[in-house]
Task: inverse folding
């Protein structure tokens, strides 16, 4: 059985998409970011909790502060990417549940009254949404460079608050010269898929 999605779109979103390590100087506009969000906001999460929060690092001062918190190998590309986004999970997402899950507004208190439960749910569902975000960046014809090589505690302190847990940092823009490392191998179907 073939996929319904056009092969060119499959290539754009998956087969040809890789983590970009260099970018052109072409800016990423607010309109592009809005279009990405307007697409990826429909990705499902448990209870429609939608805990992902995105902090766009646009000012030179904020960029300089962030670059200093990145792992050494991630600093040059983060300094030069047209746009950098800090993706985080909102551990107080439950406050939005009466609006986001209106057919059962009691879910806020019935399931998420305790902070450790919210933190686990926010981590799982925020990471799921981060995956959608990366695909959305690709759908906009941009390259994404997701990274977890940074000081999580320092990024939280510098850019977020105690209610937001950093998930990853994503460099975004048009790929530059020599943007890609060679494609790394993938596991075979039988190594991943098990039927019971």
Result:
């Amino acid at each position: 059985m073939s996929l319904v999605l056009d092969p060119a779109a499959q290539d754009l979103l998956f087969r040809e998409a890789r983590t970009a390590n260099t970018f052109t100087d072409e800016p990423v506009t607010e309109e592009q970011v809005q279009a990405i969000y307007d697409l990826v906001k429909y990705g499902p999460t448990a209870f429609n909790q939608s805990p992902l929060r995105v902090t766009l690092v646009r000012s030179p001062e904020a960029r300089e502060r962030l670059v200093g918190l990145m792992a050494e190998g991630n600093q040059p590309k983060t300094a030069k990417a047209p746009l950098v986004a800090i993706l985080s999970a909102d551990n107080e997402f439950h406050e939005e549940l009466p609006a986001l899950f209106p057919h059962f507004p009691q879910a806020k208190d019935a399931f998420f009254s305790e902070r450790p439960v919210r933190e686990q749910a926010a981590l799982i569902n925020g990471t799921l949404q981060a995956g959608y975000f990366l695909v959305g960046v690709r759908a906009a014809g941009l390259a994404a460079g997701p990274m977890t090589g940074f000081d999580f505690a320092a990024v939280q302190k510098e850019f977020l608050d105690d209610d937001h847990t950093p998930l990853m940092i994503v460099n975004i823009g048009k790929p530059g010269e020599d943007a890609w490392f060679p494609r790394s191998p993938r596991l075979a179907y039988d190594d991943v898929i098990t039927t019971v």
